UniProtKB/TrEMBL annotation:
PANTHER family: CD48 ANTIGEN-RELATED, LFA-3. The chain crosses the membrane at residues 245-269. This is Ig-like domain-containing protein. InterPro entries: Ig-like_dom, Ig-like_dom_sf, Ig-like_fold, Ig_sub, Ig_V-set. Keywords: Membrane, Signal, Transmembrane, Transmembrane helix. Residues 1-29 form the signal peptide. It comes from Sinocyclocheilus rhinocerous. Residues 136-220 form the Ig-like domain. It comes from the Eukaryota. SUPFAM superfamilies: Immunoglobulin. CDD domains: Ig.
Amino acid sequence: MFETFIFICLCSWIHICLLGVFGVDEVKSVSVMEGDSVTLNTDDTDIQRNDQILWRFGHNNILIAQINRKNNKSKCHYNNAAGRFRDRLQLDHQTGSLSITNTTTTDSGLYKVTSSRTETPLSTFNLTVYAHLPVPVVSRDCASSSSSSQQNCSLVCSVVNVGHVTLSWYKGNSLLSSISVSDLSISLSLPLEVEYQDKNSYSCVLNNPISNQTQHLDITQLCHTCEGRTCGDISIYLLKHGLTILYVVLISAAAAGFLLIVAAVMIFCTCRKHKEVNHVGKYDLMLIHL
């Protein structure tokens, strides 16, 4: 009996503590795409009866807007929160709801509604603003191909300047691999190796909780042409014929050098012979004069 009483008291204490931290409502998650508008609806009769409604942003509880229901006036504190909400806040006097227009990723965070009578949040929202997703780029990765994998084509799917996303490879509707990141403005890449003759459909998908972008793979276009050869064919060709090409280059250089030497000797001999003829002619002329 005593243990039951202790358990009931403990539960009551935890409940009171949770109410003191979170208020009458739990945190409501709201997601929106960057550039869209969002309305944080209070939907609370207690808020509507209060004389003054205060909207606060972030963990520092920065005051960004307030409604005085007694005189039906409202005010937006645009200079607060480093001016990030300038000319983008709208208040509903009847419901106390707050609207944010032309949202940006910096608008993400906690929004709390309090009244002038208590500092306990009456409603708390966790807003997440997602940036627009780029279309993934699929390219051939010839550097990853080797002579031992001449039947396979190495590909890579990549995106830049993304955050809070997942990049995935799909074969039809089946997930092959994926990579996720929670940081902002980061680059991601995900490799894939397929056979040249593969007839299955592949796609690279970039997604966040509210949107996605898909790039479908064309194996014929990406894998079967690498300046007229597949990547594997080029590697094998270089391995087989690399030394032969080197020998040809060396022999050609030697032959060119030999021809230059022969040409130089012939020019020298011609010039010398012409000089000797001129000398003999001058000697004959001297004898005639004598």
